[in-house]
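Q: Give me the 3D complex with adenosine-5'-triphosphate.
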Amino acid sequence: MIKFENVVKEYKLKKDKAVTALKGISFEIEKGDICFYLGPNGAGKSTTIKLLLGILKPDDGKILINNNELKKKYKKEYLKRIGISIGNKSHLIWDIPVIESLKLVGKLYKVPEKVSDERIKYMAEKLNITHVLNKPAKFLSLGERVKSDMICALIHEPEIVYLDEPTIGVDILSKEIIFEFIKEHNEKNKTTFFITTHDISWVEKVNTKLILIDKGKKIYSGEVEKLKQNYKIPESFMIEFDKKIDINNFLDFKDKFLEFKTSDNKISFVSNNHNVHIEFINYCFKNYNVVRINEMTNKKLEDIIISITKKESEKYGQF
Ligand SMILES: Nc1ncnc2c1ncn2[C@@H]1O[C@H](COP(=O)(O)OP(=O)(O)OP(=O)(O)O)[C@@H](O)[C@H]1O
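A: Here is the predicted complex, encoded as structure tokens.
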């Protein structure tokens, strides 16, 4: 339903110079997907969101929403069917009670007042902010503000919701509540969520769609779990013996590993080759008294993403 076809976006600078923020990005997002759009600073995330909101136009390529090109004729209808929340900007009016801002947004989208009131009540309860609805927005904590903005984005039950850095500065507990809320809303209404974030802890929570970009290029698109499974990072083990060991007894093995460290009664070793691990572990069990063996392979999504970003040109998973 959301399709980017080789989208290029350039920012013109002075003296005939230009920055190419997106260098031919393609992806597809199905209805009802929760899609995380991840990338380091300057990767092109905000540019993508601005293109999706119709604020910017691509210099090349196509943006299709439900098979309609995002051009003038379709844009008016499209904008009514989307919701937006931008982490560091608020839809709330600073000096009036939050509930008044929310009701106003409901009115702007022509949501019947009764329906709008019911939705505000329901979502505020789910997000645990009922007690702040009568406070002016300027007195809200950051987390309460982000949650209130989430209600603004959803009050007209849009088909697609764009969330730009929704968890910036939000504490762990609020992040959890917001995420559970998004998941529930997605399941109930089949709403499509397109979320830009730096927050890998969020992405790690669900096996959802992930698009990874860097320097205006897509470097991964697929499920989070697939990325974890397909991407091979070296395995790492530690063996503990019942007494101090002599490194000279292990010299035959040392060169087979990427890393091989001994200290007192322990050896830790790292390799890309699973069979080398098996061979070495068998050898230790046969010839020594092994007290403990620990796998210390770190398959954290964050490390994988850092590693992929470094090897930008290599391809993993589905593209
Ligand atoms: N208005 C602009 N004029 C010129 N260059 C711009 C403009 N906006 C963005 N850029 C450049 O385009 C590239 C992509 O920027 P963009 O803001 O899309 O990245 P981002 O992934 O959202 O970064 P961040 O995580 O830091 O917000 C960067 O090199 C940035 O300097």
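A quick observation: The longest strand covers residues 18-29.
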